[in-house]
Known about the structure:
- The protein is an alpha/beta fold.
- The chain has helices at about 15-30, 50-55, 70-75, 90-105, 115-120, 135-145, 150-170, 185-190, 230-250, 290, 310-315, 345-355, 360-375, 380-394, and strands at about 1-5, 35-40, 60-65, 110, 130, 175-180, 200, 220-225, 255-260, 280, 295-300, 320-325, 340.
- Helix content is about 40%, strand content about 15%.
- Helix 1 packs across helix 14 (about 380-394), helix 6 runs antiparallel to helix 7 and helix 9 (about 230-250) crosses helix 12.
- The longest helix has 22 residues, at about 150-170.
Amino acid sequence: MCILFLSTWFPYPPDNGSKIRAYHLLRALSQRHEVTLISFAWDTAAPEQAAAGLPFCCAVHILPRDPFARSAFAQAMRYLSLAPVVTRPIPEMQRLVGDVLTHTTFDAVIASTEVMATYALQAPGTTVKILEEHNSFSRMMEDRYRAATQPVRRLNHWISWQKTRCYEAALFRKFDQIVMVSEADRRTCEQLPGHRTPVAVIPNGVDCVHHRPGLAEVRPNTLVYNGALTYSANYDAMQYFLAEIYPRIKQQAPDVTLTITGSTRGVDLNGLRLDESVHLTGYVEDVRLPVAQSAACVVPLRQGGGTRLKILEAMALGVPVVATSKGAEGLSVVNGEHLLLADDPAAFATAVLRVLREPDLRAHLIHNARALVEAQYDWKMIGAQFVNLIETSL
């Protein structure tokens, strides 16, 4: 079959969650089918390395532009529009997709996230259209609304939630198949008004060969958060951790340190309680090493959706994880078996200290977590599930 894959993020190098997912799904599809990639490219994207990094694609077309960077006017007008700003089509991408569709007949077109949905709908009516969405934005908007306490903000969040539900309900009906990463996301989609499009779950995964225990010597009393602060959910997680949890840990373990990986470009660091024990790495080409060197991975997320690649990567690397229930949402994990879960500051701090101080507990979590990712979350297995879904959709 001939498949057109539209990616919001150019998937090479695969250095964030969206890129990693797109990279592995593309690689799996290309093992059995001819795949053409059309993608935006910005920030750390390396389109000049497409031939070496994406050799499995039969053709690659790139628009060097950030689709999230919209004009101040467009941002200001977002409250008057049902569609999110980032889903509004960019003429240059419309022309690029239209040109490729004119010269090649495709059996299926896959839009990776809602940003690419309008471009996928340019395909002829006979072409199977699949929306490979990573998270349910309706569910994220609902969570934000329910977490709000201030009346005006709560009302604004409720309006955003309802607008998102209406938008996704209308959009999803135009596709033949919707893909989400968790059962919670699927349930939300199936509850949208007028729902009729099938929704499948293809979870996130990890490369268990590339991510393996023993890549680096573990440093005692070291914590890591492997998530860029440029993403609002990561920023909120670290703001909460540094203000409410980390001081409790330091009282019991004064020599503890925390490493936060990822870009900090444009981030308000003044909003974080940083001190000399907190190290910001900035962008790193290989995030495996700072994670593998750490005694524990902390994931105190309170926002966001989907499933957390950062947890799967730490588990595959043999690093025990302490997370909130929200952080581990969507993963088939058991508290005390694969990781430790805690949802209030005192309990989270206690869980971290246990992981740092109890060798038997560490060994237990590391063993079980690695077995879990090998059995359920290896990209090879997940990629095969995705390919089977695409083939049965045709």
